[in-house]
Amino acid sequence: MLQRIERLGNSTIYYLQDLGRMGLFLLAAIGGIFKRPFRLQATIRQAQLIGANSFAVIFFTAAFTGMVLGLQGYYTLRKFGSEGALGSAVALSLIRELGPVLTALMVTGRAGSAMCAEIGIMRNSEQIDALECMAVDPFRYLITPKLLATIISIPILTLMFNVVGIFGGYVAGVELLGVNPGAYFTGMEQSVINKDINMGIIKSFVFALLVVWICTGRGYFVHAIRGAGFGAEGVSRVTTQAVVLSSISILIWDYLLTAILL
Amino acid sequence: MNEPIIRFNGVSKSFGRQQVLDGVDFAIAAGKTTVIAGASGQGKSVTLKLILGLLKPDSGQILVKGQDVAQMRAAELNAIRMHFGVLFQGAALLDSLSVFDNVALPLEERTKLSREEIRAKVLAMLEQLGLAGHEGKFPAQLSGGMKKRVGLARALMLQPEIMLFDEPTTGLDPEKAMEIYQLFARTQQQFGYTSIIVSHDIPKIFNLADQVVIMDKGKIASFENPEAIQHSADPDIMDFVRTTMGNIYRSREME
User: What is the pTM of this model?
Assistant: First the structure.
């Protein structure tokens, strides 16, 4: 019994410590933005790795998501004789929900896992200690460029996702199923308001922050995470954990933000 | 003896239930070479991390140039770390950067030198350590001995007063290890740094040592020179010496 209470206490302390650690980590990473010298080149390079190199993945995900929406939407709406509303249905689902969420999930899988593994390996091979010993702030040097690059990239990718998705819906609904093209776009124009677009953009910023925070943070603390193990196995477990954790956080925050913003 | 550059006063450190250092006292003299020896897992690397302020002790003081590292804020730590050069066990080169960029990193980050000045300094240092022509390679393309040399070059760029070496010859064959030790002796003469070497490559490492610190079961014994170890009266130390080193003099003759 006593042992069980002790274990519970240990876990509580561990999770509180972990939370505190991650909180301080985020503050230090944001603080890195204001420290000089600013790592412009590294930030651009990261934006290329995280953002530009995700174009193809986002393009295909968006195109097929849009097409499926067009297809499903068409058969559902036809029951009520309102195929004309297809454009607005596709656009609203994409702009408010699917664009930000799917983009963030795809970036988590493609770039978040890579970031986590990279930082974790650097921690394990003492590269982060080495930076500290050279009095180089590892946050400013390593984390901040990734933070900025992700926060810039994900909203842009989200906008791209929306545009491609809307044309995907157009291909399926108008080209293949014969919805009136004028109705598709006019319906969209009338139903999508600024608030919807703002909501999508706010979401994509929040998701970007979650992805980069969780993925780099888990990698950075690979040595301090309980049950992760050491060496290569530690990095692989922590990477899995980071991807799962950020995906779940994205979905939870999606609900919370929708409840707040709607 | 002049004022020691590093002094441990009653330092204790434990991880969970494992006590790694238990009220440790010792001092390291400036300009000399101190070897910290001990079996694996006896707190040698922890000692280095304590000196660098990467870990905080549970109790006790760690004075570097008279200032307590354990009480320092981040900015002060950064200032004191400028006096240190560190050669890590696995060299800890940034593996996404070339040899040149690794060695240039401290200058780019910590000084206001122009690109040309940095380039000249880096190439001169690489030349000195026998790495000329390798500046475009990446750490993964280097042998263990070369990695150590690049790590040494990077550590020496800011002309540190104190060099810390963490197991510098682990994973090297005896010939390469000897080469690395000769390199230490040569660069120390040139740059005049205080050298602290953590190693279990005993007794070979004693050829370099002015002072020896032996760690065993959280306790420490400090000696003025390698020969003094033989005359120690402490039974634990004697036992350690016998089991890990055999007879120092005999192995010297063998070389």
Answer: 0.87
